[in-house]
Amino acid sequence: MRYGWHSVLKQAFEGLAAVAPAWRTPEPKPVYDVVIVGGGAHGLATAYYLAKEHGIANVAVLEKGYLGSGNVGRNTTIVRSNYLLDGNVQFYEKSMQLWEGLEQDLNFNAMVSQRGVLNLYHSDAQRDAFARRGTAMRLHGIDAELLDRDQVRALVPFLDFDNARFPIQGGLLQRRGGTVRHDAVAWGYARGADRRGVDILQHCEVTGISVENGRVTGVETTRGRIACRKLALATAGNSSRTAAMAGLKLPIESHVLQAFVSEAIKPYIDQVVTYGAGHFYVSQSDKGGLVFGGDIDGYNSYAQRGNLPTVEHVVEAGVAMIPGLSRLRLLRSWGGVMDMSMDGSPIIDTTPVEGLYLNCGWCYGGFKATPASGWCFAHTIARDEPHALNAKFRLDRFRSGRVIDEKGGGARPNVH
Amino acid sequence: MIVTCPFCGDRPSEEFGVLGDAAPVRPADPAGDPEAWYDYVYLRANPRGAHREYWHHVGGCRQWLVVTRDTTTHDIAAVEPARLAKQTAPEKGEP
Amino acid sequence: MSGYRLDGGGRIDRSRRLAFRFDGETYGGHPGDTLASALTANGVRLLGRSFKYHRPRGLLTDGPAEPNALVELRGGARREPNTRATTVELYEGLEARSQNAWPSRGFDIGAVNGLLSPLLPAGFYYKTFMWPAAFWERVYEPLIRRAAGLGRATHAADPDTYEKGTLHCDLLVVGAGPAGLIAALAAVRAGLRVILADDQPEAGGRLLARRAPLDEDEPLIWRDKVLAELRSAPNVRVMPRTTVFGWYDGNLFGALERVADHLLAPPTHLPRLIYWRIHARRALLCAGAEERPLVFGGNDRPGVMLASAGQSLALRYGVAPGRRVAVFATADSGYQVARDLQAAGVRLAAVIDPRRDGEAPAGIEAPVYRHTVVTSTRGGRGLAGAQLLDKAHGRSIALDCDALLMAGGWNPTVHLTCHRGTKPVWRDDLAAFVPGETGDAFRVAGAAAGHLSTPACFASALEAVAAIGTELGKPVPQVTAPACPEEASEVTPLWWIKESKGKAFVDFQNDVTVTDIPLAAAEGYRSVEMMKRYTTLGMATDQGKTSGVNGLAILAEVTGRPIPEVGTTTYRPGYVPVALGALAGPHVGPEFRPVRRSPLHRWMLRQGAAMIEAGAWMRPSHYARGEEDWFAAMCREVKTVRGRVGICDVSTLGKIDVQGPDAAEFLNRVYCNGWKTLPVGKARYGLMLREDGFVYDDGTTSRLGERHYLMTTTTANAAGVMAHLEFCLQALWPELDVQVASVTDQWGQIALAGPQARAVLAKLVDGLDVSNAAFPFLAAAETTVLGGIPARVFRISFSGELAYEIAVPADYSEELAEGLMRCGAAFGIAPYGGEALSTMRIEKGHPAGAELDGRTTAQDLGLGKLLSSKKDYIGRAMCRREAFEDPERPVLVGLKPVAGGKLRAGAHLLTAGDTPSVEADQGWIASSCYSPTLESYLALAFLKRGRARIGEELVVYDPLREGLYTGLVCDPVFVDPEHERLHA
């Protein structure tokens, strides 16, 4: 059923009988052309683009929990393409462009809201780094503006301009950046993929990968063996475990990133704003809660929860940036498990195992990358080689030294 | 988390810095097999469960410690000084 | 009018009257009231409007689970949206306003949404508002955002203060109800160090609102005896108004103490809130249980509330919930409430019980309808009556009532036990989830563990404390629980009344009705987490406390699965919402982070320094004279140094003392260049890589003795390098006999630079021969200055001039600075700041922070010749990889404007003639300055194949600052390329 007011009206008159499921709940087939492990946003988007762009619809997406139970439902919903380095800039801009047409493409309102992303700077050195980044963006045709203190003040007057430990000097603004309703991205891609024939198999956990003569032949799952010609891993957070089933060791550690939401309030802050003197980023959801986050806890973790030192760190930065937050209340905090790669950038690549493809290492950037990640991964799977947009995200960059290190932190996952 | 520093006793985790996996062993030969160096610098077993990792008591005795911690529960099973741990490192964990 | 103040009873102080205002109207109440009880006593039932349909709403609960009675409390910079009226202690002058209603809570335009509700089912917005695409941000979203949200938050800075604290104990008892009190008593008698935290202003829990006797006496008499004993014990801290909100690793609990929220404003010496981190060896959760509403038509009408809320109103606050009060009960506890209300003088209208079997309990002086349900309610903005369906006889009954109390059973307060990932466990006999296995460190007792009768609460608490005492080596003496009658506590769940007419709400605050759940399931959102996210059930400020179990039970029923299979959504911290100000504590505003100050800080201020933040440090940017701005001051300072002599504070550079027989070997391994040949009395530039081969840090290191070196690092990396050296020594090479110690704070250090530097130094030192022959470039000496001040003198230069750095023990820093000014007065000496220093290092082509950004290599910086191939060092194996030797890599060059123009860091360099594009991008400017020496802008840039392009003209593209110039590529050393001044 196509969505629109007409479908809502029909439902209003006809009740539950008029309700069509957003996706089927099929039984696994014995064999698929492509099996995608991971029913998060990246896996679902990959399935969608495999069907849409490459005509490969004999595809199954295997999800060990429920649809979108991983990081797509745990992030702070920010989308942007304000990157510095070659490889990242064009990839995230592709993602931004796909976000811009996503709802019409999927016939699902994911509430893509381009309200602007503002990164504050507090020193000349930060300003210069933003200028370099903004100029790189402009060279790629991406919008970027460098604001001075007065321009920031006009835009977001309630930041702490007058009593701060690290005075705000200005900001880098990408007006096309914004937020997207995160769960809806998973649901929209799931529905879109399902409508094109993809089987979405929930509560189907992969327990083993079969490799014969250097070639993938299928997977063992909690719902039985499923054979496939190609196997694509999109299991960020658990990439090391799934890759190990095929004998691969990755340049990745799993870390917990906490996220936070305040009680719902009337419109408070329009843009996404990030602090430059501490780890803090904030936006307001359409429901009214302020959604915010900061840095990872810093220790390896597969637990989807964090600890108080990080909570304090994040909230201190938040109240330092917006003093008015002090009387607001933190409603809920949670954690997601990040694939922290060794240079802070992702991996979308073929592997030494024939028929096995890898999509991992998303660090903090996974949500905003969703459309481009699915689009590029689908291309890589269909054509057996990366698209130009993900050609720099290959695994061998760690051998050659062509790392993409936005933070300049080096081979330490917990500093990216 | 509470880390029982062998030198300072029970201390809150915020006194420590975390470097990461203590399993990789630095190859002896700087001109040796590049694969061994690649493995040391970049590849991580990233296990679910027990993980030996370097913690630094930055806000205390400044000793580097090898903490054995479960990555699913965050429970800490053992803490030993890094300078003693070098000889006692077990086989690498699997994810 | 419905509710009213009873003639007697309650824990309120009737001798004092407090005036307060709600929506501009003035009312009266008493100390001991909550805002909710005081409003009810004044007959106010309509307290606000719901989120989506703007339905009139009143009180539902008597505590923190309240979803409806949310108000904006206080005003101005203290405005607090979404404050639960049920948790606000009344104080004189209290001001509150209703929320989400316009123009008023009585007449709310938004209520039209209720009429449109067939068009607004769960998830409707995912299917609509898609055309035209651009309308989402511009039209639909702003409308939705204005309609959504609840209260209005302030943007003003908070006038109140907050504190953080840490507590340690053997046993933390969470909740001071019957179980918590007896647990604390037993633990205290055993000699354990105990913290008893309770969210209410007075201890007692449900004892505050019940009549059943303890030891055949008023229940609070027993409570008072316990509290008296606790107060006299030295090993217990009783913390009222303290809510434990989270359980974290290491048995750490987060708690919030409301120090002054019950006052108009905090007294000047007190914080508003204190956020406590409580490290507990053991903890015992005695947080009781929360009552469940029943789901039937019109169950949200003001006047419909939980039975426990009605009981609290009457017994704790002395307020009748209505003039004709009906009880709708699927749990035995409803009858107890009916009897308690009756005894308190409240008129009962009826008790309605859907259960078919068994006899109605005796002693209820009102009709008891068995096998009967409520199908709908009537009334405008408050309850006027209910429609009952007698299922035994199939007849409909119209009941007049202005309050309807719901007793739908109890949910043990399991939340804290779930914060570390433990899942709660379903118990059919209780029709509720109880805590799962949390281990010995965190136990659960009382109603929180599913013990719904008081004797069982006492027994479970004593059993838990006995086990804890044994584990901690403090045997617990026999403690006798007070005698109390057994209570009927059967629950027969009825998840929703299928015969309901009208909207039946599951989640009151988010307006999720019972029809939304099968709809979500039919659309494919069958997992409880997906149902929650699709319908928003449980996502309101009460986090599903009253709605969660009802919602998942209904989902289980409509999808034909048992409840345990459906499971719960995840309970996350905090148990209640926590003010962000408390979590930030005092670390806001100027106190966000500590400030590091050089030992010369005050001296520099006296010299007129303009101080700016540089990481943790404050450093001088320039020293303005007269009307000079920073630029004029910088130019003058540079000219002073290049022409005469100046001094600059360099105390913030990292200084690390390295000693031991293997010190030279150690330096050899941490720096990429060689250290074995450095003689005593000499300094050397050192470049440090990371293990991945990229540049980490640089600085000079001097050999002060056979086994003694002093390393300097950049200011930014001082702490990181120190930790790195310790790692290398302890983890990588424990066999090396070397000690390192940070001495950054122990030494004040000043750079003395300029052609006259030697002449000034000669006057400063106590006899050290500073002639060029005796003390050449890169010499280092330990000596004394100014008549006996211990000092270290290094002939090193960042500015490129003849220069020295003089270090003295930090306490002598001002003497040194004054001495230098005195010795240099005749030469026109002046202090210079960071701007001048930065300009001179760019003129000299020295890399600094912007060039050492963690992505550059030694080769990029033109320092490839330092990479030794004769030894092992950190980064050696990786620093010659393919990408490092790529001739296309951008490398460090100088850049000058061809025909004027302001070169600015961050601009990119494009091949001349091309239109700006990625393909034309050749590099970027890392640092730039205006050079007063060369009277031109200069820049250090990274340029592809840069060293082969000296003399080439490029486009300097700076679109963010509207800059477009032509630049000339040149050598990065602009001033004194032969380094003659260094060696002069």
Describe this structure in words.
The complex is a heterotrimer of chains A (416), B (95) and C (984). Helix content of chain A is 29%, strand content 26%. Chain A has 416 residues and is an alpha/beta fold. In chain A, the strands form three sheets. In chain A, strands 1, 2, 8, 9, 10, 11, 17 and 18 form an eight-stranded mixed sheet that branches. An eight-stranded mixed sheet of chain A has the order 5-6-4-13-14-15-12-16. The mean pLDDT of chain A is 97. Chain B is α+β, with helices and mostly antiparallel strands and 95 residues long. Chain B has one domain (2-88): Folate-binding fold. Helices cover 17% and strands 35% of the residues of chain B. Chain B is globular, with a radius of gyration of 14 Å. Mean pLDDT of chain B is 91; it is low at 91-95. Among the domains of chain C are: 1-155, 2Fe-2S iron-sulphur cluster binding domain, sarcosine oxidase, alpha subunit, N-terminal domain (Ubiquitin-like (UB roll)); 162-289 and 412-471, FAD/NAD(P)-binding domain; 293-408, 3-Layer(bba) Sandwich (FAD/NAD(P)-binding domain), CATH 3.50.50.60; 502-558; 887-984, Aminomethyltransferase beta-barrel domains (Elongation Factor Tu (Ef-tu), domain 3). Chain C has 23 helices and 51 strands. In chain C, the strands form 13 sheets. In chain C, strands 9, 10, 11, 12, 13, 14 and 28 form a seven-stranded mixed sheet that branches. A six-stranded mixed sheet of chain C has the order 42-43-44-41-35-45. In chain C, strands 46-49-48-47-50-51 form a six-stranded antiparallel barrel. In chain C, α5 (178-189) runs parallel beside α6, α5 (178-189) runs parallel beside α10 and α20 (757-764) crosses α21 (813-824). Chain C is elongated. Chain C starts with a strand and ends with a helix. The model of chain C has no long low-confidence stretch (mean pLDDT 96). β16 of chain A pairs antiparallel with β31 (578-579) of chain C, so a sheet runs across the interface.
Give a brief rundown of this model.
The complex is a heterotrimer of chains A (416), B (95) and C (984). Chain A has 416 residues and is of the alpha/beta class. Chain A has helices spanning 5-14, 41-54, 88-100, 102-106, 124-139, 149-155, 182-195, 239-244, 308-321, 366-383, 397-400; strands at residues 31-37, 59-62, 78-79, 117-121, 145-148, 170-174, 178-179, 199-201, 206-212, 215-221, 224-233, 252-264, 272-274, 281-284, 289-300, 329-341, 347-350, 356-360.
